[in-house]
Write a structure and sequence with these properties.
The complex is a heterodimer of chains A (181) and B (596). With 181 residues, chain A is an alpha+beta fold. Chain A is built from one helix and ten strands; from the N terminus they run αββββββββββ. In chain B, strand 3 and strand 4 form a beta hairpin. Classes of the chains: A alpha+beta (181), B mainly alpha (596).
């Protein structure tokens, strides 16, 4: 290798050769790597498309004091180059909480993202993955539950008297705060 | 011959290489305990070879991944065997890695000057686990999808870089095409590349320092070739035989239903990650990071520190104790996870539904998969979707053969009829049985009992003479024929005369159905319309709006109007109706599918 032939005293010419080799070697190596890095990090600049409120069901389907019912959220799903309208993108549990009030809870567990089930017998929500349990209003039921926060409540609007519209969002899992993704 | 080999050797020096490879000194002679490293190299080679062949047929995108894996597994020559070999060798590799690690620690082969070799081995262990984790997703089935969702969500709680890391790995905010392309690049390119680099370093260092002999040496030193090579070869053969046993027993590798984010699935990782999964259950709320990241990192830290710990007087014993304790802990957590699932009825029911879906979609796929992917085959399939919708929207009052459609017992009491076989001759015979009409199987739970005209009519049937009963039977056959049930098509064709007589009987003075009901162009509109009773059109309209004047009108018991209330879509109502009627596509035979 070149360095084994370096004379004992620093030589201007060999210093320039070394510096030039390192710089040129660096440039030729960095260009393809940099080109790849941009594509690698591209997902960071993309935000998932936030859908506005989506029509979910009718108030008549939710008698007061009846158990929570699961409804699919049907919206447009964007997957890289594909755009598919009218497909299920998630689901919510709806409960009537007053004459004109509805509570909507995202069915995804805030712990690790499994689908939470409603257990009628005990009137609780239960996650089949790591056993997090939530009360009917979505609050953490058992303090030993692995979930760091309550089920994610979503904004609901009642339009034209009986139509339930939900602004559907997903949130980051495993953190105490509700941060939209 | 010799001259040409000499020529080659002068130019390549291959003899020295062969000599070094085969005549490496094995202190104390060949032993079985030295075989683990070789079996791992063998497994990795199997994975590279089978992986490349799988690559020839795999298509990484969310519309084609499951589909191409299905094609490999069920349609291609020897596809199941190739997939099975790849799948089970991966599992064998995990087991062998642990055995290799234990042998190295027990024999003290991690101590100076072999520290770097030990560390490179631990890194190889981690890279192999990463290979499993990324490979799991590639079929894009429910199991892989949900397990990966959980794994990446857990990775995202890593402080500072977690969320960005998750987005980069997943390729988007949601799981989709780019999740597969990225996992595939990791699985088939980046990680194997890393493994090859580390294997080269690992073997180079191993050769540099030689085998750590197990004392006392039982025999004089010997060369690697042929005694140790023979032992290694036999061990590789044994691994292969075990793998083949599983490949043949499972006929390849499992393939779940295609990934569907709207279809819940009780996610479980592969069996060798179950201990981590179980560990997470013990860390409430904000302490999750302890179970998910801190504990595993600390354990790895101890593993990495073993060469240093081993220098102390009691260090080696500590390392051994630690390793056994860790293995014991892993085994215990794995057992707990499995035991908990085994006695969890909800989980077991979920597994059964998932297996049904998986088997069904394969049947449907035989007829060809549309460009939108196999997930649409399943979403449009009455046989699998019908019971799910029934369980969710109907089973709080109705039953299907005594259960909720999915084989579970709903907590609510049965308040309306059991709909298995609805509209069939058998079902109607039960309905018109004075002893059965007011049982929970029919109307026992409804407010039609005991005072409605219909119930009184059925109760009076007890007084019928045998001739009158025969007229009733013909009427029932005619009514049932209105449903045009696929399962009864043959019988309806055969009994055309009976049906014509039965229709007349329904209009006759004895049965007088048309005194209250409409039947085609005759009758009154007091009770539900019997025209096309139980047919698809009738059932869809009925489920959509039982309170409509065509059906019960204001006499409707508590049944919701699913259509106008928009609690079920038209598509969903159609799926339930088709399922109740037993009208779903029959699987195409492979021969018929092939001729298309």
């Amino acid at each position: 290798m070149a360095c084994s032939h370096v004379p004992p005293q620093p030589d201007r010419r060999s210093f320039i050769a070394k510096a030039a080799s390192i710089v040129i070697g660096g440039i030729v190596a960095v260009v393809p790597a940099l080109a790849g890095l941009l594509v690698l990090f591209d997902p960071l600049r993309r935000k998932s498309e936030t859908t506005g409120a989506v029509f979910v069901g009718s108030l008549n389907a939710l008698p007061e004091n009846s158990p929570p019912r699961k409804f699919e959220i049907v919206a447009t799903r964007v997957d890289a180059w594909n755009r598919t309208p009218n497909v299920p993108v998630g689901s919510v549990y709806l409960q009537r909480t007053g004459p004109n009030e509805v509570r909507a809870l995202n069915t995804v567990c805030p712990h690790a993202g499994c689908a939470v089930g409603y257990r009628g017998g005990q009137d609780i929500f239960f996650c089949p993955c790591h056993n997090s349990s939530f009360s009917r209003d979505g609050k953490i039921l058992d303090p030993k539950s692995p979930s760091p926060r309550a089920l994610d409540e979503l904004p609901v609007e009642i339009r034209h008297g009986t139509e339930i519209w939900v602004k559907f969002r997903n949130f980051r899992k495993g953190v105490p705060d509700k941060i939209p993704v | 011959m010799k001259a040409s080999l000499d020529w080659l050797d002068q130019r390549t020096g291959y003899r020295k290489l062969v000599h070094e490879t085969l005549f490496e000194n094995v202190p104390g002679g060949a032993r079985w305990r030295y075989v683990w490293g070789s079996t791992l190299v063998f497994c990795f080679a199997v994975q590279v070879i089978t992986g490349l062949f799988l690559w020839l047929a795999y298509s990484p995108s969310s519309q084609t991944a499951w589909e191409s894996v299905y094609f490999i597994q069920y349609q291609m020559w020897g596809g199941w065997f190739l997939r099975g070999l790849h799948h089970f060798t991966a599992q064998a590799m995990t087991v062998l890695l642990v055995l290799h690690l234990m042998q190295v620690v027990i024999d003290g082969a991690y101590k100076a000057p072999r520290e770097i070799n030990f560390w490179s081995g631990v890194i190889l262990l981690l890279l192999t686990l990463a290979l499993s984790l990324t490979g799991y997703l590639l079929p894009w089935d429910q199991k892989g999808y949900w397990a990966t969702a959980v794994a990446t969500n857990i990775a995202a709680i890593t402080p500072v870089i977690g969320p960005a890391l998750q987005t980069i790995v997943v390729g988007s905010a949601d799981y989709g095409h780019h999740t597969i392309t990225r996992f595939f690049a990791l699985h088939a390119g980046i990680i194997p590349g890393g493994i090859i680099a580390f294997i080269v370093a690992h073997i180079y260092l191993f050769r540099r320092h030689g085998i750590t002999p197990k004392e006392p040496r039982r025999r004089p030193d010997a060369a690697f070739w042929p005694d140790q090579v023979l032992r290694d070869a036999v061990a590789c053969l044994a691994v292969l035989v075990v793998v083949l046993f599983f490949v043949i027993r499972h006929h390849g590798a499992p393939l779940d239903a295609p990934a569907d984010p709207s279809e819940p699935y009780d996610a479980r990782p592969e069996w060798y990650f179950l201990f981590l999964f179980q560990l997470l259950k013990y860390f409430p709320g904000r302490t999750e990071i302890i179970g998910a990241i801190i504990v595993p990192t600390l354990l790895l830290g101890v593993l990495f520190a073993m060469p240093y710990v081993g220098r102390w007087k009691l260090g080696h014993r500590f390392n051994l104790g630690f390793l056994w304790a860790m293995m014991g802990g892993v085994a215990l957590l794995t057992y707990l996870a499995m035991a908990e699932d085994a006695k969890n009825a909800d989980y077991q029911a979920g597994v059964q539904t998932a297996q049904r879906d998986a088997a069904r979609v394969v049947e449907l796929a035989r007829g060809g998969i549309p460009i939108t992917g196999a997930v649409t085959l399943l979403r449009n399939d009455p046989l699998t979707q019908g019971p799910k919708i029934f369980s969710q929207s109907c089973s709080s009052c109705h039953r299907y053969d005594g259960h909720d459609g999915l084989g579970r017992q709903p907590k609510d009491k049965i308040a309306a009829s059991d709909l298995k076989g609805f509209g069939s001759r058998e079902w109607l015979t039960g309905f018109f049985d004075p002893a059965l009409i007011d049982t929970p199987k029919y109307w026992g739970g409804t407010h039609f009992v005991p005072d409605s005209d219909m119930v009184k009519f059925v109760k009076d049937l007890a007084e019928y003479t045998p001739e009158q009963k025969e007229e009733l039977r013909r009427g029932l056959i005619a009514l049932s024929a209105e449903a045009r049930l696929p399962a009864q098509a043959e019988a309806d064709r055969r009994d055309a005369t009976l049906i014509a007589e039965g229709k007349a009987a329904m209009n006759g003075t004895l049965l007088a159905c048309t005194d209250c009901h409409t039947l085609h162009d005759q009758g009154a509109a007091e009770g539900p319309d019997l025209t096309g009773y139980g047919s698809r059109e009738w059932l869809v309209a009925f489920i959509s709006d039982p309170s409509h004047e065509r059906f019960y009108g204001e006499n409707n018991d508590r049944m919701p109007s699913f259509g106008p209330e928009k609690s079920l879509t038209e598509h969903q109502i159609g799926l339930v109706a088709d399922w109740l009627r037993g009208a779903w596509p029959q699987p195409a035979t492979p021969a018929a599918a092939g001729s298309n």
